[in-house]
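mind reviewing these tokens:
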Amino acid sequence: MDRRCIAIFDSGLGGLTVVRAIQQRLPADDLVYFGDTARVPYGSKSKETVTRFAREICDFLLRFDPKLIVFACNTASAAALASLRPHIPVPTVGVVMPGARAAVERAGNGTIAVIATESTINSDAYRTAMRSLNPQVRVIQKPCPLFVPLAEEGRSADDPIVRVVVQDYLQPLVALGPQAMVLGCTHYPILRDAIADACGPDIELIDSAEQTARQVHADLAATDGLRTDDRRGKLTCYVSDNPQRFRELGQRFLQQSIVDVTWVAPERFHADEARPVS
């Protein structure tokens, strides 16, 4: 049994859907989360910039001696994980491969749709991962750049603006008849009901957050790293801007209140201490 924490990061609030899924599967583990709220969104930034941000955040999270780091950001997983993994002294899990694997299992040799940020789509990471699992699978992809700001603004799935945007983005994909659709951004589950309504009952939605939590559990189980104490793990959150807003909107993603939030500016990632917020 390994009592060290699990570290998780995302560009903003979306990674809290991964936190929620991990809490459900590993309730005894302490979690440390970093949301880069000062520099969100990552989806429109270059690969080099996203890699630099991810490297800085991993350096910060390593100060907590984690047993594993989760790249709970599809953009960072696609753009930075492969190049950074050899330089990170603990195991890492991204959100792309778990979601890709689940989609291939559901679709077989059929068609899979992927919706994600522009950067994730441009990286072709999902198509590459899916083709490595099944070269016969057909992958269609579409960037949905407005989904992240809509979720970050606190708009819900039944918001009329959300419904119009979702229909506009997804109608061309749905017309191609995919068997599965990957929510290739951890913000997208907040809009899941609107996405499901646009897709209809014949398209199975694949939540990368749920699949990533499965992968984390499997990896830790394989190395005797699961914490099995009869306890409830603690969640500690760090953000690079506006902790109060993170507390307020983060409750929608986590589906519970967030108490322990600390602000640490990007220029202080390598400092000895973060700045606590009372």
Summary: Confidence is low (pLDDT under 50) at residues 273-278. Residues 96-209 form a domain with the Rossmann fold fold (CATH 3.40.50.1860).
